[in-house]
Design goal:
CATH class: Mainly Alpha
CATH architecture: Up-down Bundle
Strand content: under 5%
Number of strands: 0
CATH topology: Four Helix Bundle (Hemerythrin (Met), subunit A)
Order of helices and strands: HHHHHHH
Shape: globular
Structural class: mainly alpha
Oligomer: single chain
Distance between the termini: 36 Å
CATH superfamily: dinb family like domain
Length: 171
């Protein structure tokens, strides 16, 4: 797994990979947002909804912890072995949005995530125990790993997915 020397490096990686990912949606027609192609497991709408869902979940875990609420990971009503049902919830939440709306929401969510990360100390981000929710699974990861696997890593892999999805549309 990629590592980061400090908070700035993590934020820079988020911004860079998010920008490259969202640029791939240029030219994707609104009429095609729900089209599924062989070899690509998600539609453009689902790819964006997935990213939005995870960014919201992570922020929600932290918000709940700061309010003294019990943090349930991955989400209330879901266990870690029920991820496809969780993802379907993401897709359903954003199904009525246009691609333009989803793209704007994505950019806004990334900006909000970066602002949120700016409030962390280096120790809170990079040492285990920085947040209780981050240590709530057997992995006992520091916050940065949760952020990485739910932002930078999928931004990169989903960029490949949307590029592959667009190939049948290339002229």
């Amino acid at each position: 797994m990629q590592e980061y020397r400090d908070k700035k490096a993590l934020i820079d990686a988020i911004r860079e990979t998010a920008g490259l990912f969202i640029e791939e949606f240029e030219g994707v027609a609104e009429a095609d947002k729900d089209v599924r192609h062989d070899g690509v497991d998600r539609t453009p709408q689902e790819m964006l909804a997935y990213q939005l869902g995870w960014m919201e979940l992570i922020r929600g875990w932290d918000k709940d912890e700061s309010k003294g609420k019990e943090v349930i990971t991955p989400a209330p009503g879901y266990k870690w072995n029920q991820m496809s049902a969780l993802y379907q919830g993401f897709y359903d939440k954003y199904k009525d949005k246009t691609l333009a709306q989803l793209r704007k929401l994505f950019v806004k969510a990334v900006d909000s995530l970066v602002e949120w990360l700016g409030g962390f100390s280096e120790d809170e981000l990079f040492k285990s125990g920085g947040r209780k929710w981050a240590a709530s699974t057997s992995s006992n990861w520091p916050v940065w790993k949760w952020v990485h696997i739910n932002t930078v890593a999928p931004f990169k892999s989903f960029r490949g997915k949307i590029r592959k999805w667009k190939k049948p549309h290339s002229t």
